[in-house]
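// run 5 | inverse folding | seed 20
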């Protein structure tokens, strides 16, 4: 806990003085030798109104050096940290390139460096601060629009400005307590969902950047707030198909042990042991695939062990990694020993696998909840949903691999599908507390992803398996159809759930 004597460095951007000259952007790139495509500081142009009452405003955007920085909390290796002077600093030597910080940042202020494969962001020119100098952007600003200093010192110029002038910050609802204050800022510039961004502007044609402006219900109107100049939004789909695939494979791996563990209190020993014969190797295989996907998604895959060796314990990436490691240990022991569930050791391994499997399935819900930049991921029900999803996946996979001896699993598959389906419906059709979450859900319901949701997730993945198991014959190998469809539904849902929130711009 910082004392009252500790500084708290921040920025004031005085939009009354900013002329949009980009000197701050150039100085930042020069100071840090950043390559093309890396913009730690950039200037956005906002225009609104119609002549003769037209208005143009300039907004300097960058890392907000939040007092409650979500990027620091989610970083698994403490490559991001808060200094004693409240600067959110970055150590590329510890970064594994997991991109979790990019998802946690509500301001789209973190890049992946194309040469090092590590994250990079504004660090308040901490090397200059340590030498008693101002950040480079403030030094070069020709109008003095960028004011830096100690917000905790009531006698400092920056503190007097914040105290004496009406200011605003970006996305205060996120609870990050950002330390960039804007004088005469415009909400239409600071909230990207409040303005439109046409395909063609005075500056040329905008390149495709992966965001869904066509699905963003902002209608282009003459005189409406419009971002006429901006850098390309870089971070759509920082987590792509490898992440959605890992959620699917992890569900199967976790569910394979959760299913027989759930049956254990009912003393169906023959069914449990029959399931275990398949569950141990099945879970091991899909955990191996999960590990490959997780490592492959890193920008610095050779550093993947640092999650275990250099842990930052507030991150659910770290907690999940240790849970996965323990679960793999139980899987190896169970497969190697081959103990019946009737023995003490067999029962112990089964129950340990069930408990750890539940954690392995659920932890991603808490991890995605730490990604404050993506609102649809913030549901407190996500861990429970992922746990139920794992039961569906485990029951479907086990029944699929041995439909004759494990036909009784169809009842568990039916029951878990009935319990899990409302969570999918709630994520999409339920009440959303933010505009970003509402628009992400809208893109699933009515946008170009709608066929995948209505036909793939609900139709093929939920409704047909439910009806098939309830009313149709599942003997003679016909279990393959409802089981495969249930697994397909999970895969398609994870694709939608991971992708849709990332298609909305953060800046």
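// decoded
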């Amino acid at each position: 806990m910082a004392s009252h004597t500790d500084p708290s460095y921040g920025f004031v951007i005085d939009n009354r003085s900013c002329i949009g000259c980009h000197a701050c952007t150039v100085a930042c790139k020069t100071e840090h030798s950043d390559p093309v495509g890396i913009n730690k500081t950039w200037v956005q142009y906002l225009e609104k109104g119609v002549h003769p009452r037209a208005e143009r405003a300039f907004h300097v955007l960058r890392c907000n050096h939040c007092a409650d920085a979500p990027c620091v909390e989610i970083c698994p290796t403490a490559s991001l940290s808060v200094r004693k002077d409240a600067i959110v600093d970055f150590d590329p030597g510890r970064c594994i390139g997991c991109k979790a910080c990019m998802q946690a940042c509500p301001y789209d202020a973190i890049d992946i460096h194309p040469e090092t494969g590590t994250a990079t962001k504004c660090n308040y020119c901490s090397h200059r601060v340590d030498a008693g100098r101002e950040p480079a952007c403030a030094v070069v600003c020709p109008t003095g629009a960028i004011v830096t200093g100690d917000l905790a010192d009531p006698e400092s110029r920056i503190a007097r400005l914040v105290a004496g002038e009406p200011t605003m910050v970006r996305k205060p609802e996120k609870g990050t307590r950002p330390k960039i204050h804007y004088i005469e800022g415009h909400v239409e510039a600071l909230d990207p969902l409040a303005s439109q961004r046409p395909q063609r502007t005075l500056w040329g044609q905008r390149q495709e950047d992966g965001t869904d402006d066509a699905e963003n219900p902002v209608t282009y109107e003459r005189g409406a707030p419009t971002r006429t100049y901006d850098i390309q939004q870089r971070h759509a789909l920082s987590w792509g198909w490898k992440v959605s695939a890992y959620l699917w494979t992890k569900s199967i791996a976790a569910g394979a042990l959760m299913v027989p563990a759930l049956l254990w209190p009912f003393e169906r020993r023959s069914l449990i042991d029959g399931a275990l014969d398949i569950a141990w190797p099945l879970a091991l295989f899909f955990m191996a695939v999960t590990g490959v996907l997780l490592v492959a998604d890193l920008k610095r895959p050779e550093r993947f062990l640092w999650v275990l060796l250099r842990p930052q314990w507030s991150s659910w990436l770290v907690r999940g990694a240790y849970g996965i490691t323990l679960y793999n240990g139980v899987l190896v022991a169970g497969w190697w020993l081959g103990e019946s569930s009737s023995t003490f050791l067999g029962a112990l391994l089964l129950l340990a696998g069930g408990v750890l499997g539940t954690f392995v399935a659920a932890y991603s819900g808490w991890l995605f909840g730490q990604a404050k930049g993506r609102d649809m991921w913030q549901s407190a029900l996500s861990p429970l949903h992922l746990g139920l999803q794992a039961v569906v996946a485990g029951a479907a996979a086990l029944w699929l691999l041995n439909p004759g001896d494990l036909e009784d699993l169809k009842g568990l598959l039916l029951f878990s599908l009935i319990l899990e389906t409302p969570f999918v419906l709630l994520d999409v059709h339920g009440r959303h507390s933010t505009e970003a979450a509402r628009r992400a859900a809208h893109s699933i319901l009515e946008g170009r992803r709608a066929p995948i949701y209505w036909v793939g997730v609900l139709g093929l993945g939920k409704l047909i398996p439910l009806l098939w198991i309830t009313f149709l014959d599942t003997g003679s190998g016909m279990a393959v159809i409802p089981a495969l469809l249930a697994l397909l539904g999970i895969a398609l849902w994870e694709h939608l759930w991971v992708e849709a929130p990332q298609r909305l711009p953060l800046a």
